Amino acid sequence: LLLLAAIPSLQRLLVYMSWINYPWGNLANPTAWGFRPDQARSLFIPTPDNLSLGAWHIVQPNAARAVPTARSPAHALPHDHWTVKTDDTVFLYLHGNAGNRGLRHRRAFYQTLLTAHMRARRRRVHLLAIDYRGFGDSSAVLPSEAGLKLDALAAWTFITRDLGAQPSQVVVVGHSLGTGVATALVHQLSTANTPPRGLVLLAPFTSIPNAAIEYPWVPVWLLGPFKSLLTPLVHEKWESIDRIPDLACNVLIVHGSKDIIINQHHAHALFKR
């Protein structure tokens, strides 16, 4: 089983789990997921390699409840409603593996983040939640590290070019697998001297190889002292531990002490870097 997992295509299926495309439903209609028509719109963002990413652009917080049908649909609202103003903040949310942007806990997080920021700063706030290639209603191809890096860059380009945000207005948020994607994006932007305002890492890992040999549902423990030999066989690296020292923005790392999937020591190692 472990040797089979070293096959690149099978490994990508195991790492990204994009085949778990849940919940089912029309992601192109945000109102079906509890958003007001004037609060969220569905988008398709082109990538540099000519794929398409499904996304939600959410503006302002609300209680995520049913809406009257008399409200204007998102496409009928003026373009100015969706553009980023001078005092606005934009969050780019990069989710973990398995499931799409409509998962209940992800939608709850969008609302919590928007509401908390709105109460703290009393300024308009945006959130862009994308589904990577192979996830949700994005192009149906097998995800890879190289591909997800392009997806994150496409989302960043949409925020800064199409929405008109300055890099200093954007906070990149990554959760679990998304912390690797977020760190890689911010590293690329830092190298180009266009870093975001900040980076938030929720339940991060140091690298996929390091996380893989500790994964509780895979019997790598049977290999005992030889399990480190598996590390070179992991093709999807996401080596955040090597990238984080070069980031040119503030970084917030959050990790639960009871996380059974990714041990908290990964967060401590990233912090010490």
UniProtKB/TrEMBL annotation:
InterPro entries: AB_hydrolase_1, AB_hydrolase_fold. It comes from Catenaria anguillulae PL171. GO terms for molecular function: hydrolase activity. The keyword Cell membrane does not apply. This is Alpha/Beta hydrolase protein. The keyword Transcription does not apply. Keywords: Hydrolase. Residues 92-239 form the AB hydrolase-1 domain. It holds the Pfam family Abhydrolase_6.
